[in-house]
Structures are given as structure tokens and as C-alpha cells.
Specification:
ATP binds at residues 213-220. It is a multi-pass membrane protein. This protein is α/β, with parallel strands linked by helices and 629 residues long. Among the domains are: 161-281 and 292-339, Rossmann fold; 345-415, Helicase, Ruva Protein, domain 3 (Orthogonal Bundle); 426-613, Up-down Bundle (Methane Monooxygenase Hydroxylase, Chain G, domain 1). The chain is built from 22 helices and 14 strands. The chain has helices spanning 5-26, 29-36, 45-54, 95-102, 116-145, 179-193, 196-199, 219-230, 249-263, 275-278, 290-303, 326-329, 345-355, 367-372, 379-395, 403-415, 426-444, 479-500, 510-525, 558-585, 587-600, 605-613; strands at 41-43, 57-63, 68-73, 83-88, 106-109, 161-163, 208-212, 234-238, 267-272, 312-318, 336-339, 451-455, 465-468, 602-604. A six-stranded mixed β-sheet has the order 6-8-9-10-7-11. Helix 15 packs across helix 16 (403-415). The longest helix is centred in the N-terminal third of the chain and has 30 residues, at 116-145. The radius of gyration is 43 Å and the shape is elongated.
Length: 629
């Protein structure tokens, strides 16, 4: 580690100051000379005079301007040997010198060394200068850490990462799975490269573009790709960096950021997590934050105020667009909102191909198969999936990633780490019946998602798992599909009831019952799928500042609330009875599947369907085309 003389001086400054005062206050020249002539004992001034009258005093050395004396005395009381005794003399005793001379005592005076001028110079000049120099070094270090060397107290300077040559290293070819968003930004790139083609027909490019989407979908990467494609300067800053504990610092940083951007226009300003500074003002709940609101006001003024910012395009990213201030979203500021959602099948395939370039994959692995098995995964999830597979491959000392590592990585990303295998016994068979109950219902219901595999290997908090492959399009779900999912969730509890009886039902279905109740209630209150009628009885838009799921009150009467509870109960009871009937009718194949599952601990979807097909007919699910590795 490199240590400079500035750091040494800075850290040694307090010790130098303390040492100076100790030296000046304790180690004076008089004290040093006095201590060199050590006295064995002390004597009062009156006793000293008595010794003088008896003739026992032989020599007197005066110190400290005549206030202290070291006396050499010899007498019977002292054992007839010379001893040095210290005597504190009074301030005014003119007759003492006369008595000493009459008694012919050897007197020697020791004047103090006069070094006061040197010490005054050191104390009054050198140490203050040293102290001031240390403070100057401290301020320079603090200023250099805030990005403004040589400028004292530059709290308001922006901490944006400025790249004059657009060294983002990312272009549109490096961003996969967001083709719609890339098409939206093509005209932004064209404007930055050829602005005359737009201004010639009176067109104006949007001043701001807001990227909205779940975490991990590639919003920040997309903003870097825009700067890389347009080859313009790129400013990047997080919304949380604007707000500090000092009043006015956030607004000052906004002004400084846009000032730098104007000097380098055309350019791009990217604000990540803008909800940290751009949330709604004056919510009236829990008080306000004046500093944050001042920062937001300054940002609004800079984006579309009295002074135009030609050639500056502001791109912001957030996953909480519902809490942003309405003034921030109006035309003239963030003119467009681009949704960057989780990728579909083709998007996942493109993302996997990008991240698989630097991975050693086995020739038998199909990237398309992995894409089909990962619905709902974001770009970050897919990158993490292949990275986990590569780590597992290295741990197993293999040369390339195989299907086994891919399967284990998917399970780990979705459900957690693998636990200790279950010991064969009653508990293991009970869990096996529970999981086979889910699998048999999911397989025999036409509208249910197909089964991918059933396993007794614990992961996370689950002691066993049944994996399904959901339909690619989850935006529209029919009533039959919701009822099939309710029955699939009840399959484990129903199998326990049929096989072990009501008295042996376990708590393993607690999470299943929560899902069942939630789906049934949404059917009644949100989707209008009950005898109450096509009514939406619960508002989906909740106040984000009150917390999720906290509503101001019911929007219906107590009579309607009773009807809602009865309809929810009826839906769950009907699905439960149908599930019990399916379990009873297929008890033989269930027992067969449980024996295989206890022995192998995992049954894949194709093997499961093949076994069930030997005992009963399986309805075709044409809307699904699952592929397994």
C-alpha cells in the first residue's frame, strides 16, 4: 500500500500537538536541572533554620530563582553522614543569605536557562502553521473524493459517470429479448446521428423516455446500448445520488448535471431508479420530504422549463411507475413510456444464445429446450441460470455443461438449494402421495398445465415438489383453467385424505390452501366468475404509500360480503369434491406411481404420462407442446 507524506502528516498531527503541550508544560529546563541533583528527603524551612543554627548545614544549592534549595547536611540525627535534603524556601527571606554567609556555608546559585524565545517561536508559529497545513490537506482530500479537486465544500457537484467517447461497450446486438423496445429507440439513435432529417419537417424528438419493467429485464443495458449506437456522451446517475442530508444539495446536483450535458450536447442522460427522487409530491401521508421535492422540482424545470435543452435526451428506468409524480410523466418531459417486460419464448432463446457464447455447452443440449422450460424468467435470471450451471459443472469436474447441470440449476433458481434426501419411511411415502396427487390431477385435467416432473428431493422449505410447464400466454386465463389450477392445488390434500384418512391429514397443504383461497376469491371479486354476477367488487389499484393490500375500506355492503364468502366456499368445495373423485378413481395408478417415486425419488413428465396412460386415458393438451431435455 502506497503511503504519502501527506497521510503521515495528517495522522501524526494530533500526536504532535499533544506532545508539544506536554513538553512545554512538564519538561521545562529548570525541572530538568533540579531533577539531576536528586534529594533523598524533604525538610521544612523551620527545621532547616534549626539545622543551620546547630552548624549541621555544609552546602546549599539554590534553584528556581531562589525558591528551592538542595541542602547537604551532616549531624547525629542524620547518622553522621552527608545527606541531600530538599527545602522549599519562602518567597521573601532576605536574612537567609546573610545567615548563610555568617555561618560560612558554601552557597551556589543555579540560574534558569533562558530559552523562552525559542519556545515561544515554536509554540506561536510552528505548531499553528502545522495545524493549518493539516486542515488544508484534509479539505483537499474531501474535495477530491466528491469529484471537485481544489474546490472547497463542493457538495453539490454531480457524481455522474461521464464518458466523452461513449465507451459503454454495448450496442443493440448485445441486447436480446427486447426487440419491441429496440425498435422504439431506433428513431432516438437516428435523431442523435442525423437531427436535420427530423427538424426539416418540423418534428421534435422526445425529451425523455421512461423505461418501465420488472427488475432484471435489461433496462440499464438498453440505455447503454443507445449511447453506444449513437456514439454520443453518456451520463449515468442513480436517483438516490441526488438526495443527501444537506438542504439544497440534490437540486444543485441536478443543475450541475444538466450544465455538463449542455456543454456536451447532443448527449444522453440516464437516471436509474428514478422513483427514488421522482415519487409523488404532497401525498399527505407520513409527512413530506422537502429536500426530495426540491430536487424533483429542479429536475422538472431542467427537463422542460424556461430554458430549452436542445440535444439532451433523458432516459430513466424504474419498476415503480405507479408512484411517479404526474408532472414528471406529462408530454414535454417523459413523452414516452417503453415497457421492458419479461421476454417471451423467442426473447428467452435470443438471451440464452447471447449468454451461452462464452460457455462450454454439451452438443446434446438444446437452447430452445431451455427457453421452453423457463417461462417467466427475466434476462438476469437466464444469465444467472447459465452461470449456476457453469459453476456446478466445474464443481463436478466436467468439461462441458450437460442437461443434468441445466436441470439442477433451474431447480435451484426457482426453489432454492437442494436439501438432505428423505429417509425411507412413513413420512417419505406420505410426501410421495401428496406430490403424486398434484401430478395425477394436473395430468388428467385437460385445462391444467402439463407436468414437467415430480421429485422427493427437498429444496428450500419444500419437502417435495411437482413442477408444471405453464402456458406461454398467461395474460388471458379462462374460468376452466382457474378451476383446474384450484383442483391441481387441492390434489395433494385430497390424496392424503383418501389414502390416510382425515385424521392423518398433515400441514403440508398450508401453502396450497392459501393459493386456492386467493384464486377462488379473485374469481368472485375481480373476474365476475360466480353467481353474484359480472361485478368487480375489489379495486386492484391500491395506494402504494399505505402498503400493499391495505385498502381504505370495502366498496360493498355487508350483505354482499356474506355472498362473496359463500361463493368462495362453494367454488372451493365443488373443486374439492371433484378432486376427491379423481383420486378415488385412479387409486391403483397412484399407488404404482408412489412406489416408483419412493424408489427413484424423481419421475420425469414423459415417464409419468406413459405410466398413467397404461391405466386410463389422458386428455390431449393441444395448446401445449412441452419439450424435455
Amino acid at each position: 500500500m502506497k503511503v504519502s507524506w501527506k497521510n503521515i502528516l495528517l495522522w501524526s498531527l494530533p500526536f504532535l500537538v499533544i506532545g508539544f503541550f506536554l513538553w512545554q508544560g512538564l519538561l521545562t529546563p529548570n525541572t530538568a536541572d533540579l531533577n539531576s541533583n536528586v534529594a533523598n528527603s524533604r525538610m521544612t524551612y523551620g527545621r532547616f533554620l534549626e539545622y543551620l543554627d546547630m552548624g549541621w548545614i555544609k552546602r546549599v544549592d539554590l534553584y528556581d530563582n531562589g525558591h528551592t534549595a538542595i541542602v547537604e547536611a551532616l549531624g547525629p540525627e542524620l547518622g553522621n553522614r552527608v545527606q541531600k535534603i530538599r527545602v522549599e524556601l519562602p518567597a521573601s527571606a532576605p536574612e537567609l543569605i546573610t545567615k548563610l554567609r555568617k555561618a560560612q556555608i558554601d552557597i551556589d546559585a543555579h540560574p534558569s536557562k533562558n530559552n523562552s524565545a525559542l519556545f515561544n517561536l515554536i509554540g506561536n508559529l510552528f505548531f499553528p502553521l502545522l495545524f493549518i497545513g493539516g486542515l488544508a490537506i484534509l479539505f483537499r482530500r474531501s474535495n477530491s473524493n466528491t469529484g471537485g479537486p481544489g474546490q472547497a465544500m463542493s457538495f453539490g457537484k454531480s457524481k455522474a459517470l461521464f464518458q466523452m467517447e461513449a465507451k459503454t461497450g454495448v450496442v443493440f446486438n448485445d441486447v436480446a429479448g427486447v426487440d419491441e423496445a429496440k425498435e422504439e429507440f431506433q428513431e432516438v439513435v437516428t435523431f442523435l446521428k442525423e437531427p436535420d432529417s427530423f427538424t426539416a419537417v418540423g418534428a421534435k424528438i422526445p425529451k425523455g423516455v421512461l423505461l418501465v419493467g420488472p427488475p432484471g429485464t435489461g433496462k440499464t443495458l438498453l440505455a447503454k446500448a443507445i449511447a453506444g449506437e449513437a456514439n454520443v456522451p453518456f451520463f449515468s446517475i442513480s436517483g438516490s445520488e441526488f438526495v443527501e442530508m444537506f438542504v439544497g444539495v440534490g437540486a444543485s446536483r441536478v443543475r450541475d448535471l444538466f450544465k455538463k450535458a449542455k456543454e456536451n450536447a447532443p448527449c444522453i442522460i440516464f437516471i436509474d431508479e428514478i422513483d427514488a427522487v421522482g415519487r409523488q409530491r404532497g401525498t399527505g401521508i407520513g409527512g413530506g420530504n422537502d429536500e426530495r421535492e426540491q430536487t424533483l422540482n429542479q429536475l422538472l424545470t431542467e427537463m422542460d422549463g424556461f430554458e430549452g435543452n436542445t440535444g439532451i435526451i433523458v432516459i430513466a428506468a424504474t419498476n415503480r411507475a405507479d408512484i411517479l409524480d404526474s408532472a414528471l410523466l406529462r408530454p414535454g418531459r417523459f413523452d414516452r413510456q417503453v415497457n421492458v417486460d419479461v421476454p417471451d419464448l423467442n426473447g428467452r432463446l435470443a438471451i440464452l444464445e447471447v449468454h451461452a457464447k462464452n460457455k462450454k455447452m454439451d452438443s446434446n443440449i438444446s437452447i430452445k429446450t431451455i427457453a421452453r422450460r423457463t417461462p417467466g424468467f427475466s434476462g438476469a435470471d437466464l444469465a444467472n441460470l447459465l452461470n449456476e450451471a457453469a459453476i456446478l459443472t466445474a464443481r463436478r469436474r466436467k468439461d462441458a455443461i450437460t442437461t443434468s447441470e441445466i436441470d439442477a440449476s433451474i431447480d435451484r433458481v426457482v426453489a432454492g438449494m437442494e436439501g438432505t434426501p428423505l429417509v425411507n419411511g412413513k413420512s417419505k411415502r406420505l410426501i410421495a402421495y401428496h406430490e403424486v396427487g398434484h401430478a395425477i390431477i394436473g395430468t388428467l385435467l385437460k385445462d391444467h398445465d402439463p407436468v414437467q416432473k415430480v421429485t422427493l428431493i427437498p429444496r428450500g422449505q419444500a419437502r417435495g415438489l411437482t413442477w408444471f410447464i405453464p402456458n406461454e400466454d398467461q395474460s388471458l386465463i379462462s374460468r376452466k383453467q382457474i378451476e383446474a389450477r384450484i383442483m391441481g392445488a387441492l390434489g395433494g390434500r385430497a390424496a392424503e385424505e383418501i389414502v390416510f384418512g382425515n385424521t392423518e391429514v398433515t400441514t403440508g397443504a398450508s401453502n396450497d390452501l392459501q393459493q386456492v383461497t386467493s384464486m377462488a376469491r379473485q374469481m368472485v371479486t375481480r373476474f365476475g366468475m360466480s353467481n353474484i354476477g359480472p361485478l368487480s367488487l375489489e379495486n386492484e389499484d391500491s395506494n402504494p404509500f399505505l402498503g400493499r393490500g391495505m385498502n381504505s375500506g370495502n366498496e360493498y355492503s355487508d350483505e354482499v360480503a356474506i355472498k362473496i364468502d359463500k361463493q368462495v366456499q362453494n367454488i372451493v368445495n365443488q373443486c374439492h369434491q371433484q378432486t376427491l373423485s379423481i383420486i378415488e378413481e385412479n387409486r391403483v395408478v397412484i399407488d404404482k406411481l408412489v412406489d416408483i417415486l419412493v424408489e427413484k425419488e424423481t419421475i420425469e413428465g414423459q415417464e409419468l404420462e406413459a405410466i398413467i396412460a397404461d391405466y386410463t386415458d389422458i386428455p390431449s393438451k393441444k395448446e401445449y407442446s412441452p419439450q424435455f431435455g
